[in-house]
Target: Aldehyde dehydrogenase family protein
Amino acid sequence: MSGQQARQAAQTIHVAGEWRAALSGATREILDPADAEPLALVAEGDERDADAAVAAARRAFDEGPWPRTSAAERAALLHRVADLLVRDREELGLLESRDAGKTLEEGRVDIDCVADAFRYFAGLVAGESAGRVVDAGSPDIHSVVVYEPVGVCALITPWNYPLLQASWKIAPALAAGNTFVIKPSEITPMTTVALIELLAEAGLPTGVAGVVTGPGHSVGARLAAHPGVDLVSFTGGLVSGTKVAQAAALGVKKVALELGGKNPNVVFADACATDEGFDTAVDQALNAAFIHSGQVCSAGSRLIVEESVKERFVAELARRAGRIRLGRGTEKGVECGPMISAEQRARTEAYVASALAEGAVLRCGGKRPEPDGTRPADGYFYEPTVLDGCHREMKVVREEVFGPVLTVETFRTEDEAVALANDTEYGLAGGVWSADAGRARRVAGRLRHGTVWINDFHPYLPQAEWGGFGKSGIGRELGPAGLAEYREAKHVYQNLAPQPVRWFAG
Model:
């Protein structure tokens, strides 16, 4: 059965190589956030479906060939997956656009990045040696550290970048030789289901990959607590991530958590000293805050700008933000799509209302746009919003909004800028804008965030680790450390000339 047929039949649970409906028979309608119309019907799995998927993944790991294949074979399969992603780029990009509400071009870029992730981890393991030799100080001792797969991995992904976040987990998990069960977000599962089909087409052995579509409170909770799971990797909100960690702790599982951020974008006056510098910094501040309607864990939602240029900077920023073209992501000329759901939009509206009640000044946005030809009346649209006059005590400054809302704070000195940027319980990412290279590197070195951009915002590299400090999570994705998350180190010590120890006299 093809991925499309499986989706049409609401058979979106994949166990032991077979597509099936939920054991309960329950289904869920997936809505297009641009117009709230049904996009697909998927299986609504529960704990029993999770148990079946874990059992299949357990058998595949304990008895199947995948954990025992060579690194070269695993790398070759990952390259085949990347080739299939390139082949299906348009179809998958469109599906990601409609499912998550982003623009079609964003969807296409996401697919490119997914292919890059598979190729990176393929390359990382392809040239590895059999282990790290350890010098024991004797020619009679052969000592080596080898890296083995963890086992069965439970992968839980968010709704904002469904396929990209899945690839950041699936690619290293497979590269290391693990089996897995993935639970995509219950509201954006479509491209993950499609990816499982591509893995099978690429030749992945039966049972290695499983997917259970369904809600976090049942499927996700069961996977985190399941005794047959060896590792849990979760990307999502702080509250849910804490529950996952607590459940996994009872089984002493390995846990990797990426829990979002409240990310500062620090702009020094010298970055705006020329017209070109000013234009670039404003443009990048817009990208930092409003890409994908601000529904990005690394969104630069806190603009921290030097007081001497603040008024000019914010005025231009608000002017441009007010001209962002909202609409259905597949429509030509649209720059920003809808929010993911009515609930997420209402949550954003509540944050804006609280900010205004606490004294923030609305510079643009702050409301739902009028419907037009590209914005259906029932779509979950919300105007890009700039809130001036903000301070650290405001709820909108402290908490992750996950919507198109940018707050503005000011500073006078470098020390004050650093203090403001670090004054958060999160620590995922941040940006520094300055024409003074020494100052930029100095400030970047003082920021307690997992990724710091200098004179840029948002790019990432698959070969560089991604993750945060503080309540932004534990562990890392991407880079060598991202592969290490899915491995266990084993020390093998071989005595080539064993002799009696004579420790005991008898």
About this structure: The longest strand covers residues 141-149. The mean pLDDT is 96.
